[in-house]
């Protein structure tokens, strides 16, 4: 084989890998965006937040257990973690995947899927604020301008829903729950930086997920009764679909996307999330889609994108 032919082959192969990376990133965005849709479907058939969350985690448990088992073969990135560091991992699991998920599911009982997704999408702004207040990190004025832009977008979307619900108090309750979910996830992200270096990404993801599953099941055992799970088959189907297509597979797809196109590009594709949720909520749930909502989504996405670029 000639040198020219041997040189041409990798180019084509790498181009194909890059395309697959974007496909994986889009699939991950679609999967994460569909979570609120599956939750809303479950609610329409009589489920409430705690049973819906418990079913999601039960269906996802075998996959998380396999992830933890597979992570055993991964070399430790540094010295074995201390007992204190294992304790940090435990709290990260509670904050990132237990409390954040619980608050989110509670909020979805009161707000639209579109508003929920836009509110959750503000987590980078909370990471900035918490890092500034508690870690002393400093950011340029352009970053804070982008934060203001994102919150202006949420203000528009919230005002749209507030008018549509005739100033309903339930809307305030729902947004408060989702905001608490966003804050909990932001705290998890801040704390996971050092833990990632100690445990590595595969172990950190698998172990924190298992902590969250255990916490959710303990919560369900204490806060629900068997009658709460006498639900139509559609609820179980929605929970299973959410466990597979909005929990397990998107994590895998995102990891593959990051490996092939890098974290920056994968994150850029992830900005499709609010748009995808709004489109699915309109098509599948019959939620409204107004000019204010679209404008609000555009401002939120623009603010988050500008934050990402400024930080890089």
Description of the molecule:
It contains twelve helices and no strands. By secondary structure, the protein is an all-alpha fold. It has one domain. α2 runs antiparallel to α8, α3 packs across α8 and α4 crosses α7. The chain is globular, with a radius of gyration of 20 Å. The N terminus is likely disordered.
Write a compact overview of the structure shown:
This protein is mainly alpha-helical and 312 residues long. The protein is 83% helix and 0% strand.
Sequence stretches where pLDDT stays below 50 over 5 or more residues: 1-16
Oligomer: single chain
Q: How much strand content do the residues show?
A: under 5%
| Average pLDDT figure | 86
Number of individual domains: 1
What is Rg? 20 Å
Shape: globular
Secondary-structure element series: HHHHHHHHHHHH
What's the total helix number? 12
Main β-sheet: number of strands, strand sense, barrel status? none
Helix-strand blueprint:
Blueprint: H1 3-44, H2 49-71, H3 83-107, H4 113-120, H5 123-135, H6 141-164, H7 169-199, H8 201-223, H9 233-261, H10 263-270, H11 273-285, H12 291-311
